[in-house]
Design goal:
The chain is mainly alpha-helical. It has helices at about 5-15, 20-30, 35-40, 50-60. Helix content is about 60%, strand content about 0%.
Length: about 70
């Protein structure tokens, strides 16, 4: 699995665990809804700045979004 796919899957898992919609996460992170969807599908490669904004919106450590498991610690 590519790193972009791992990151996207972890973002989706944490977002759903937090009860957030894709739209609310995109808004909170200051990103376009379509771009956020592309990230979750592993089709977009976000910059480190964007990854940090997503992690902040999800209230999680950005490093954990890159791991194969335990993304929501």
């Amino acid at each position: 699995m590519r790193l972009a796919e791992i990151f996207g899957a972890n973002v989706r898992r944490v977002r759903l665990k937090r009860g957030m919609t894709l739209e609310s996460l995109a808004t909170e992170a200051g990103l376009a809804y379509s771009y956020m969807g592309g990230i979750e599908r592993g089709q977009k490669n976000p910059s480190l700045d964007v990854a940090e904004r997503i992690a902040k919106a999800l209230e999680c450590d950005p490093v954990n979004l890159l791991r194969m498991t335990s993304a929501d610690k």
